[in-house]
Amino acid sequence: MGIKFRWVLLGLIAQSLIVAGEFFKPFNVSYDGRAMIIDGKRRMLISGGIHYPRATPEMWPDLISKSKEGGVDVIETYAFWNGHEPVRGQYNFEGRYDIVKFVKEVGSAGLYLFLRIGPYACAEWNFGGFPVWLRDIPGIEFRTDNKPFKEEMQRFVKMIVDLMREESLFSWQGGPIIMLQIENEYGNVESSFGSKGKEYMRWAAKMAVGLGAGVPWVMCKQVDAPEYIIDTCNAYYCDGYKPNSKRKPKVWTENWDGWYTSWGARLPHRPAEDIAFAVARFFQREGSFLNYYMFFGGTNFARTAGGPNYITSYDYDAPIDEYGLLRQPKWGHLKDLHAAIKLCEPALIAVRSPQYIKLGPKQEAHVYRDNGSKCAAFLANIDEHSSATVKFRNQAYTLPPWSVSILPDCRNTAFNTAKIGAQTSIKTVGFDAASYLNDPAHLRLMAPYEVSYISESWKFVKEPIGVWSDSNFTYQGILEHLNVTKDQTDYLWYTTRIYISDEDISFWAENQVSPALTIDSMRDLVYIFVNGQFTGSAKGKWIKVVQPVHLIQGYNDIMLLSQTVGLQNYGAFLEKDGAGFRGQIKLTGCKDGDLNITELVWTYQVGLKGEFLKIYATDDNESTEWTEFPPDAAATRFSWYKTYFDAPGGLDPVSLDLRSMGKGQVWVNGHHIGRYWTLKSPKEGCKTCDYRGTYDSDKCVTNCGEPTQSWYHIPRSWLKPSDNLLVLFEETEKNPFEISVNSYFTETICAEVSENHYPPLRAWSHPKASNGTISLNNMAPEMHLQCDAGSTITSINFASYGTPQGSCQNFSRGNCHSPNSLSVVSQACMGRQSCSISVSNTVFGGDPCHRVVKTLSVEMRCSPTSSISAH
Ligand SMILES: *[C@@H]1O[C@H](CO)[C@@H](O)[C@H](O)[C@H]1NC(C)=O
Ligand SMILES: *[C@@H]1O[C@H](CO)[C@@H](O)[C@H](O)[C@H]1NC(C)=O
Ligand SMILES: *[C@@H]1O[C@H](CO)[C@@H](O)[C@H](O)[C@H]1NC(C)=O
Ligand SMILES: *[C@@H]1O[C@H](CO)[C@@H](O)[C@H](O)[C@H]1NC(C)=O
Ligand SMILES: *[C@@H]1O[C@H](CO)[C@@H](O)[C@H](O)[C@H]1NC(C)=O
Ligand SMILES: *[C@@H]1O[C@H](CO)[C@@H](O)[C@H](O)[C@H]1NC(C)=O
Ligand SMILES: *[C@@H]1O[C@H](CO)[C@@H](O)[C@H](O)[C@H]1NC(C)=O
Ligand SMILES: *[C@@H]1O[C@H](CO)[C@@H](O)[C@H](O)[C@H]1NC(C)=O
Predict the structure, then answer these.
(1) Which residues form the SUEL-type lectin domain (predicted)?
(2) Could you tell me if 811 and 798 are in contact, meaning their C-beta atoms sit under 8 angstroms apart?
């Protein structure tokens, strides 16, 4: 039976119980070898990851409610130590870091919470979530049997557990928290620490459970987790996973439904059919708790992106996109899947292990059947090329390749992972007002979505090259970057002066060679200046740099701007990684061989002057002398630009288009949006994506030859209707005139459903369906279409019931077409935010062509409901 947790109720806690609202009737959480046990009942649980600091508190309720609507029972998040304790002993639980508020929002929505305290998060988050000050604790070694580290870790984990308890957020207090995680994927690095690794792991487990949280703890990717902690799986597929004890349920803590990306890389996408396949296979093979990593990815605001070189967007190709809009068909397909799994839940929890039936060489069924009437079956075809028709309980089922059919009554198919009924949504950034007005369907509307080209009035101020303040200091030799910056900034200037003799100059002239500045090893980015002139740059992770330089006779100033672009977040020995330069810096190709400049006296300057002056802040600092930047001005490297702009009208999310820029950072109304970079991805590698077969992050990529990130999310809550301050620091010679601020919204929606698609899932809740009085097989499938909140369907671009061809944005009529197609669809949908159409001959006034499977394909346009405009 399940493991019981003990805890101590402090008087203090009993008191706060009265103050805090209860979200649930208090309940206990335990588990057995089949499932989590919530309030005495086994549950099949779907969890969705949302990292609270990757969105604003204003966005949280909507994200949580969209997750719930998508069939999620649990919200998962890490706790972000470096966000909560930026300076040792100084805490931040405000704004995006208000974890208590976030957990309460989850509880208010009636969802559970899975909190992964870590405190190592990885998460493509700066330094994996560790505060950078942790490196400076004498004798510290991260994530191993090391006293200083264990003390700090315990202090943070205990603080979070205590905070949650004080706020009555654990299940037994009526709060939403049902499960906790200690450490994170430690099994990946444990062996790097030898026997101390195992010792640390055991210590961490014991320490966590000793904190009296009263809910189960998990360790992911930890096959040697102790008996009292559930070891869990993180991967693209976890159906084959087996926890290390029969007394633990099969839990999938990270189902990677997309992937992250780096500056200069392509954008990964995981097909909805394959995610659904992986999830269905998991529940088919005794899985019981599944978490999507991520359900909403969000944004790495400010300098929170990890490294090396992760982009500001953390969209992750998640079911809810970076801006908080539904990603379709992914969200809708998973919603249908979750509903189908929920229909199976009574049978799944009634049976400890399913009956296995081999249906064919690559086809199999798992049947969950109790002694009574409960029965659910999963039929899988793991053949990645061909579909298969299998016989199950005397009935034939056709299974597309690489798919699972879910039969909640062991007879009717409620869902097949490869058959998408959900709509496709095509989003748009900005708005082409001209084409909008030329479209007669829109003439009666005003155009609230206009491309909001920012005013041409820009001001600028130059950032000095090299040392700019009294805070500079000198040191003989090269200091490690992070030891100097403490990660208060990305930027660190290293400057020195070298003497070049007449002989060297003539040697170079006679041999027609030039000397080169050579850096043995460097990360993440360096700009090289000689005598105030920009000479070159290099980017990479611990790469060698050889930069030819032009030197003059006499003294030459060498200035290196070393930059971090997200600190390392993965791997063992993070505290030793560091940044900047390693090895020696030399001038090669001199007359007398290499000139070793490592041990010269170097002058150091931390950060940029503009950062120090906070010239991005809204309260204007008189010490900054902004000057007009007229349209004919030539842009110079390292400039700060500012302007004011009006927010786009309406309520849609807002996006900043920085395609015309180079690299830098951007702030709006003093809020740090993040780093930007227009580094382009390789031209090749993007090809048509086939959902069939094992997925990996290189399989289905898009955006080849384009900047990895062009658009940057500005949360609505950071904007006023007008006079918003935009400040950029630009590191290259790009001018800001083409920057624009735009609405981001779903403009086109499409769907395709054929008459032999499975019946609507809600039909299953019909009382007569459960005992077979009405046949689900005879119920017509339905098509559902929905615009974003605040938008309605304003035109039908295409509608055909028959044998239409093509796909969204490229549909065409086939040989068979019902003449009523447009009028039926129009009647059902025009002017509505959402609509449903039954896909059957009856609805379309008769069969347009006998003995042919008919399909309904539609394409519609969404426009704002009212002509709201802030202008
Ligand atoms: C939870 O379990 C504890 C210990 O077994 C018990 O005292 C308590 O009443 C239970 N609470 C609920 C809400 O069932
Ligand atoms: C099913 O019935 C058998 C025999 O009647 C019994 O031994 C078993 O415990 C029952 N199983 C369940 C899950 O009720
Ligand atoms: C660098 O620091 C020194 C000593 O604090 C100071 O005298 C000098 O002016 C500084 N350099 C600049 C460019 O501010
Ligand atoms: C960084 O500073 C610490 C002392 O704070 C020192 O032990 C360490 O060696 C330094 N790292 C490098 C790479 O210089
Ligand atoms: C350059 O100087 C460094 C520091 O003194 C020293 O360790 C290294 O051996 C020197 N390299 C060469 C090639 O002389
Ligand atoms: C203004 O400039 C001073 C230094 O001159 C600086 O201390 C301060 O932080 C700056 N920024 C703001 C927003 O006051
Ligand atoms: C099925 O259930 C419905 C409603 O609960 C009931 O009216 C009907 O008699 C049942 N039919 C059978 C065959 O049990
Ligand atoms: C549009 O669909 C037709 C088939 O109906 C296909 O031949 C054509 O390649 C498609 N075009 C695009 C751009 O997808």
Answers:
(1) 777-863
(2) yes
